């Protein structure tokens, strides 16, 4: 049995190396998934992009799906932090909805390679069908509940037309996917501020009561 102290310099060095390998692998995988999609991405190319041997990659992640899942877990944790900060700072349901959508759009625009990989999957964002990891399903469910709650509250306030809150939440998510896809196709020529404002204007035109449209638009 080893008597090596858990926090010895050697152990800390090994842990630091593993952390660096992991980060390098995830960054390289993000580029590969963006360029080729999950199915076509090759582990050998991920290892090459990370600047490590194939043996080192497999020593960190035994399978390609493990790499993919770790990438999703890391990026979705950051996404939920971004959206959560926006939502927690909100004072009312309208601000919560706006904060959630703006946080969602801004995060993906700050991570264009991750965004390209997600779009390349060809999975409709308004459903959990074909999601590959439980982390993706959990994040989707959390976002759905947040948006449903905000739409329900907005309907009670008389801001939005009466409709199925889940339908509204899923439709708004699909609208975000289309807008981000268009942003990529147009060489990312708009700033996050321009994209988020346009997204909110579209959302209000779609869901706001006509008599409250001007009032809500003025709050953007």
Could you characterize the architecture of this molecule?
By secondary structure, the chain is mostly helical. It has two domains: 1-62, Arc Repressor Mutant, subunit A (Orthogonal Bundle); 72-217, Tetracycline Repressor, domain 2. It has ten helices and no strands. The chain has helices spanning 9-40, 43-50, 54-60, 64-88, 93-110, 112-120, 134-156, 165-185, 192-207, 213-217. It is elongated. The model has no long low-confidence stretch (mean pLDDT 93).
What's this model, at a glance?
The protein has helices at 9-40, 43-50, 54-60, 64-88, 93-110, 112-120, 134-156, 165-185, 192-207, 213-217. By secondary structure, it is mostly helical. The protein has two domains: 1-62, Arc Repressor Mutant, subunit A, CATH 1.10.10.60; 72-217, Tetracycline Repressor, domain 2 (Orthogonal Bundle), CATH 1.10.357.10.
Indicate the topology.
Layout: H1 9-40, H2 43-50, H3 54-60, H4 64-88, H5 93-110, H6 112-120, H7 134-156, H8 165-185, H9 192-207, H10 213-217
Helix pairs in contact: 1-2, 1-4, 1-6, 4-5, 5-7, 5-9, 6-8, 7-8, 8-9
Task: Supply the key terms.
single chain; 220 residues; mainly alpha; Arc Repressor Mutant, subunit A; Tetracycline Repressor, domain 2; 2 domains; elongated
Number of strands: 0
Instruction: Tell me what portion of residues adopts beta-strand conformation.
Output: under 5%
Regarding CATH, which class of the largest domain? Answer: Mainly Alpha
Low-confidence stretches: none
Number of helices: 10
Oligomer: single chain
Question: How many angstroms does the end-to-end distance come to?
Answer: 63 Å
Global Rg? 21 Å
